[in-house]
Design brief:
This is RNA polymerase sigma factor. By secondary structure, this protein is an all-alpha fold. The chain has one domain (11-96, 108-183). Helices cover 64% and strands 0% of the residues. It is built from 9 helices and no strands. Residues 1-6 and 92-105 have low confidence and may be disordered.
Length: 187
Amino acid sequence: MREPAGAPINAFDVARAVREARRGSQSAFAQLHRRFAPLVHGILIGRFRPALADELTQECFALAFARLAQLKEEHKFGPWIATIARRMPPATAAEVTAAEVPERASTAASPEDRAEAARVLHALAALPEAYRETLALRLVEGLGGAEIAALTGLTPESVRVNLHRGMAKLRAALGLDRARALEFGHE
């Protein structure tokens, strides 16, 4: 289970878990996985189909486990694994393309909702990386600004700016600004 959204990330606890995982503790690495999986998945979902992002999230953690000795600052596991995720090449498929529809969706979602989710993911994938990642962490993973900052190593101010600017770009990409202007008779 994932820790609750907004739960503080204690650098001391992260460093301790990294040290224990280096000594072979599977439970310590599982703790790191639980805490940082939303970060890794949020980065990957902006680049890849949902099922591939899920698969690559697991591959990213396997790679991190194998390279754990290379982490110089134990308390910076979040930014380190985020870098690994950003560098993950797809195993067998190409990055998200505009014509691609996610192959997995909630069975409770209507076809219209699934199509809208695909449209949003495609628009998200077209954004610059900084905006794409922070928006995916907020909108897809449900993380708050402070939690995004703690996981990524960004300042809270940077996260706030990225979310604000990214949301404006996402609305524009989805045509929501124009639709809103038309709704209120401003165009």
